Amino acid sequence: MKGKTLQKETLCVHGTSFKENTGAVSVPIYQSATFTHPRLGESTGYDYSRLQNPTRQAVEETIAKLEKAKSAICFSSGMAAISCLMELFNIGDHIIASEDLYGGAIRLFRQINQKNGIKFSFVDTSDLNAITKAITKNTKAIFVESPTNPMMIVSDLKAIGNLANKNGLLFVVDNTFLTPHFITPISFNADIVVHSGTKYLGGHNDTLAGVLAFKDLELAETARAIAKTLGACLSPFDSWLLLRGIKTLALRMERANDNALKIAQFLSTHKKIKKVFYAGLSSHKGHNILKEQSSGFGAMVSFEVDSHETLKTILEKVKVFSFAESLGGVESLITYPAAQTHADVPEQERLARGINEKLMRASIGIENAKDLIDDLQNALL
Question: Alpha helix locations (H) across 200-273?
Fold first, then answer.
């Protein structure tokens, strides 16, 4: 609608301006590697699918609008997106990152990016003073997950955004857990928003995807040129799956968020559960910050059980939950971070962060909350 800003629920369904001349309601899958030119020196706007594809353009437009970004780029996975992001930096550049971070990102930073001359400081980004102390003359960016994976630590995006802006640093936020339905980091001075689109954006555990969304169009075009060169673009079919998933993002996030709070409350009262990490609980250290900055707390719940034997029993006995990696789908999943998502993080470091042999992480889906609670209750007997 001209002159009016659509609400986020409507943007999920109608976010793209792409129109197809057959009148198709669903954006078609343009399963073509290349496109013809009308004549020498002219283009339809599409030349080769590694550069751009109509289906991918449609989902990029939708995500950009949801994230209040100027532009978005979709990749073949979340790690492909972060890999492209890292190519914006040069040898000797320094990046401050959340110390409690997805294990794959830690592996990329330490095994690939550090080898190529980029330096990192991993700090508790919920502590603004710790970030400030880590800034050096070579610092170029602050990379934050909030809530973090898997300890659900919340950072004050507004305060960090102001700090980054004051020091001329890029502020990068991984918004995979909360999605633009609950929070838009660009509203808090973030320059780049990262997503593993595999998770909540896709929402059905049926595709891999990654996203970078940009506040600045010039920076976006620089990254797009890098993405074109690296070649890890999102395929037409996966673009369509991502676009289809986003149509129900608002509905799924609301239901999963409600379920997560009920499950966190149940776990908090069980004798075999020693700690629950969920920002929706008023006892969580970051509860008030997230309540102020976000319209929801997300659907990721981590918890520590009383023994490793209890952990193994839960993984073996759950029936509605699935023991599987990943998160963000309509199905509820449960994982063991120490042996799965963070297996490559050195043991001493894992233990220092609380990622021990008794920690579990649950991605809460859209099933009936009673069935999920009953499933956990039976597994905990």
Answer: 217-230, 236-246, 249-268
